[in-house]
Automatic annotation (TrEMBL):
Listed Pfam families: Choline_transpo
Cellular component, GO annotation: plasma membrane
Function of the protein: Choline transporter.
Family, per entry: Belongs to the CTL (choline transporter-like) family.
Major site of localization recorded for this protein: membrane
GO molecular function, one term: transmembrane transporter activity
Subcellular location: Cell membrane; Membrane
Membrane topology: Multi-pass membrane protein
Ranges annotated as spanning the membrane: 106-126, 133-157, 186-207, 317-336, 375-396, 473-496, 516-534
Protein name in the entry: Choline transporter-like protein
Lineage: Eukaryota, Metazoa, Spiralia, Lophotrochozoa, Platyhelminthes
Length: 584
């Protein structure tokens, strides 16, 4: 007999107690059921061996049959126990195998995440010397690709138009292959490829200088990130703050769900009497519930009467509190994002305007920028995030109304609701763009939110083409970076998890490789984690590009290179634009 503390009933401290007393006082177990450990839980050995038994009998470790009975004193066979095991414990489900796979590969997942961090940092460092090569090589490849596509499509058109089948008029068909047998299809594709080719050539001819400026700004951002590596770890703090906000909002939402008043119905002593027709009486009571006068079950002080509890109700005001809680969630989340943007903007702006005089740079520009944003620009952060939160809150309400209107099947109301959703979505995108650039101007000049928004919009409106080129080149570079990081980490992880890394050495392969049930589960987690890591690095880099680009435009418009107003831009940017400082 096993007792508390891992001792048996013969222990000296139990000498004055009988076996019955020990069991009754729950000091010792009344019986022992052989079990085995599985995922930290004790599972009966007989139950763990039922699957694949096929005999429908429960047997112990020696093969002896065990007679089990249920609460009704009926015999339970092995098949029924196996069904219970499958339904309740679920150890034959996919979840068990997935957990087992993750328990074997968690260290591989952590290693791959660490590798993705290193690769993302290396990619940003490589941008200092490879940005120009990557962009121009890609544009040349695009020209070659669309040139080949144009020539091939017109070649196929010239061949098919001479055949009886290809010269026929194009007709609607569910067979997609039939379209490619028609000369008209290849003619249309050839025209499309030719138009795209002309557009790319025009971009290369007329926007080559602006492309060079965009590449130079990317190089400057890469230098800034390399000089201030602490900015790469900055997303950790906003991530923690967002987790705190989410947990707090969930706690408030759950607490609001508990706000209710107890609802009951009055009953007398006669109602509580158990009679032969008790079932019928209960049924009649249920039917008459809504005809009875509600009462407070917490105040049962009337003689001969009582109040039977029915349910918690009267939540008519909690919906408004939940809506307010939802709005606060949007506001706080956007406030954290705004704080992130302004902190990074202040850091990169300080780097740009101190490039000519490194002594003017603070020792820790990231902390300095965070201090300025928190203590001097909280109002701007709150107002900008409030505008976005209000739009997001209204969009949620509109989407909720849309789901209700769909049941009415009214095309007019559905159309209007869709138009409202589209307008609010576009307005939200514009506000996010406005906030992002306004926070950069606030970080540079310390202006109010409205003044900074007006300055940023007017500045960008005067440089629309440059903005478009820089934005697209940045998107392309960041997309390539994410693709490289995810491709390398995911490819190596796939080779390892599938046991292909040391395929020639079976002994080494068996020693290092874990045999998994579903290798795609840890592989999917690795790929997703690598993408998230690359996205975090990309978000910092993208904010740096936007900040340095606005600083460059301000520098170009407000300075002329004289001794009184020198340019702060790098020599590379000056060479591209043909600018010089009087002192250099």
């Amino acid at each position: 007999m096993i007792c508390l503390g891992g001792v048996n009933a013969n222990d000296p401290k139990f000498a004055n107690q009988s076996i019955e007393q020990l069991v009754q006082d729950k000091q010792c177990a009344p019986y022992i059921y052989h079990s085995k450990s599985m995922l930290g839980r004790c599972i009966p050995s007989q139950v763990s061996r039922l699957i694949g038994n096929g005999t429908g009998q429960v047997r112990d470790e020696t093969g002896k049959r065990i007679l089990l009975k249920n609460a009704k004193d009926q015999e339970v066979n092995g098949t029924e126990v196996a069904k219970s095991r499958k339904l309740v414990l679920g150890f034959t489900t996919i979840f068990e195998k997935v957990v087992a796979d993750l328990s074997q590969t968690w260290h591989i997942i952590l290693i791959c995440i660490s590798v993705s961090v290193v690769l993302s940092f290396c990619w940003i460092v490589l941008l200092r010397c490879c940005t120009s090569v990557m962009v121009w090589t890609t544009l040349i490849l695009f020209v070659a690709l669309f040139s080949f596509g144009t020539v091939f499509c017109f070649y196929r058109w010239s061949v098919l138009r001479k055949t009886p089948e290809g010269s026929n008029d194009l007709e609607f068909s569910l067979n997609i292959v039939s379209y490619f047998r028609s000369a008209s299809t290849w003619l249309a594709l050839g025209i499309i490829f030719a138009i795209l080719l002309v557009i790319i050539l025009l971009i290369l001819i007329f926007l080559r200088k602006r492309i060079r400026v965009a590449i130079a700004i990317l190089n400057e951002t890469s230098k800034a990130v390399s000089a201030m590596t602490s900015v790469l770890f900055w997303p950790i703090l906003p991530f923690i703050l967002e987790l705190i906000v989410i947990s707090q909002v969930l706690f408030v939402a759950i607490s609001l769900r508990t706000i209710a008043d107890p609802i009951g119905t009055k009953i007398t002593n006669d109602d509580l009497a158990v009679t032969p027709g008790f079932a019928d009486k209960t049924r009649n009571d249920i039917k008459g519930i809504f005809q009875l006068i509600p009462c407070d079950p917490l105040q049962n002080n009337s003689a001969g009467k009582a109040c039977r509890f029915l349910y918690y109700g009267d939540r008519k005001y909690t919906i408004y509190l939940q809506l307010f809680n939802l709005f606060m969630f949007f506001w706080l989340i956007n406030f954290v994002k705004s704080l992130t943007q302004m902190t990074l903007a202040g850091t990169f702006a300080e780097y740009y305007f101190s490039s000519q005089d490194k002594k003017s740079t603070s020792k820790c520009p990231l902390i300095t920028s965070l201090f300025r944003s928190t203590f001097y620009h909280t109002g701007s952060l709150a107002f900008g995030s409030f505008l976005i939160a209000l739009l997001q809150w209204l969009r949620v309400i509109i989407e909720y109304i849309n789901t209700k209107l769909k049941k009415a099947n009214n095309p007019v109301t559905n159309f209007l609701s869709k138009c409202l959703s589209c307008c609010f979505w576009l307005l939200e995108k514009f506000l996010k763009f406005l906030n992002r650039n306004a926070f950069i101007m606030v970080a540079i000049y310390g202006q109010s939110f409205c003044s900074a928004s007006r300055s940023a919009l007017s500045l960008l409106a005067r440089n629309v083409v440059r903005l478009f080129v820089v934005d697209k080149v940045t998107d392309f570079i960041l997309f390539i970076g994410k693709l490289v990081v995810v491709g390398i980490v995911g490819g190596v992880a796939y080779v390892y998890l599938e046991g292909m890394l040391f395929k020639g050495n079976e002994a080494l392969n068996d020693a290092l490789h874990s045999h998994l049930h579903y290798s795609f589960v840890p592989l999917g987690i690795i790929i997703l984690s690598s993408y998230l890591v690359a996205s975090l690095f990309s978000s910092v880099f993208e904010m740096g590009v936007d900040t340095i680009f606005l600083c460059f435009l301000e520098d170009l418009e407000k300075n002329d290179g004289s001794a009184e107003r020198p340019y702060y831009m790098s020599k590379n940017l000056m060479d591209i634009l043909g600018k010089r400082n009087a002192r250099s």
